[in-house]
């Protein structure tokens, strides 16, 4: 994809925050009223990427990596310290009406629904703000409520809804104006597994039906695996990977995970030759085996051990990601020395 075809373009984006240090003690506090020491936090430290229309990209990184800051900048809520950002040809920070009509930012940790009123009232408010024609509005609300199986819940006061029901209504409120670009920051946080799946499927359908572009952050790797073929990995404001999720997993963890069950307890020493032992408790063992040796090692296990059950899996994505983040930190620490 050339930069000119891209719908979202980010070039060398930096965002710094100036933070006042809080000194302890009354005297220090009084003094700091006049001369407050400040430090600079480099939340985003020179990142570049671009997205084509309709793409779904996951934004991964540990806490404080700079994900929310990047999304807020793309949505026009924060001004970049330097660098360039374009979303469908617009400079987000100008917050032009035509730009605002095209985008939405959903933050799982914040809500826009009015607490004491039913969600439909917030939908109505957004209809007015975005000047959505009545018939289109009604069609959208009906379709989205059906997709999310909300029924008449949208007419109950928000405070009476469960977390999952509220999150679904948040999504509808954010989509009343049928945006083409979705920035979703932890949209499934706090939801149970069934609800996560429902929201995920809904987002997927919206993406397909509207050819909407999507950037998603989530601590639930299942969300990312289900929705985002491509991922960006950010740590300490710097991008360390931009590419296919599968490829990332292969790079970080070229091993397959083999779960073995035996008809009787097996000695640890008998397992050593198979690979890296992740777990071992007598009649059960979990072993990481290099991908290229998988066939040979599995045959060996079957020949030499009383195997009654064998399953080949991959390490959970959560584990792969925390290993990646730990590695990046370590490399950077060594680099800094
Ligand atoms: N308004 C602000 N003022 C000062 N520092 C900020 C501000 N917003 C964010 N930061 C700092 O910038 C860094 C990046 O924060 P950001 O919220 O973008 O991270 P994140 O990747 O979204 O993290 P998480 O996964 O925890 O939500 C953090 O060190 C954070 O403390």
From TrEMBL:
Keywords: ATP-binding, Nucleotide-binding, Transport. InterPro entries: AAA+_ATPase, ABC_transporter-like_ATP-bd, ABC_transporter_ATP-binding, P-loop_NTPase. It holds the Pfam family ABC_tran. The keyword Transport applies. It comes from the Bacteria. PROSITE patterns: ABC_TRANSPORTER_2. One of its GO terms (molecular function) is ATP hydrolysis activity. SUPFAM superfamilies: P-loop containing nucleoside triphosphate hydrolases. Residues 28-261 form the ABC transporter domain. This is ABC transporter, ATP-binding protein. The lineage of its organism: Bacteria, Pseudomonadati, Myxococcota, Polyangia, Polyangiales.
